[in-house]
Design a protein that fits this description.
Number of domains: 2
Number of helices: 6
Structural class: alpha+beta
Distance between the termini: 39 Å
Bound molecules: zinc ion
Number of strands: 6
Strand content: 15-25%
Largest sheet: 3 strands, antiparallel
Radius of gyration: 23 Å
Length: about 160
Amino acid sequence: MRPAYADYVKCRQCDAPDTRVIDSRNSENGASIRRRRSCAACGARFTTFERVEEVPLEVRKRSGDREPFVAGKVRGGIELAVKGRPVTSEQVTRMVTSVEDAVRASSTPLETSSIGELVLTGLKVLDPVSAMRFASVYKHFEELSDFERAASELSGP
Ligand SMILES: [Zn+2]
């Protein structure tokens, strides 16, 4: 079992719980933060590696409600549109990643309709037929979550 965070960051020298961060930098792979800490009681210094908190990505529905961004939903919508078309799963993955990047880069939650537009734009470049399919289903439903529901109904159990 992993030690509790409070135990992990307390002073290694005297067990004092109160340590101060004096330096903080991302580790090379970006998955953790390397922190240099200093004990308030005895002045001992040590280094911790702490996990980067994942910021949950959110999107905004037309109603104004927010919901978590689920890359799998986007992928499901794209996969249905490209079914039987000359679009590789690598291309689909790249498209999903670029949508996710756009969601992450936005300072406010993107509207689900903007995400649909992004997918449509990407599909138009890859395969116009897939783009038309995506547009015809998507226009009816507006929301990607509805698209996902339609996709699961069409593809069966
Ligand atoms: Zn100490």
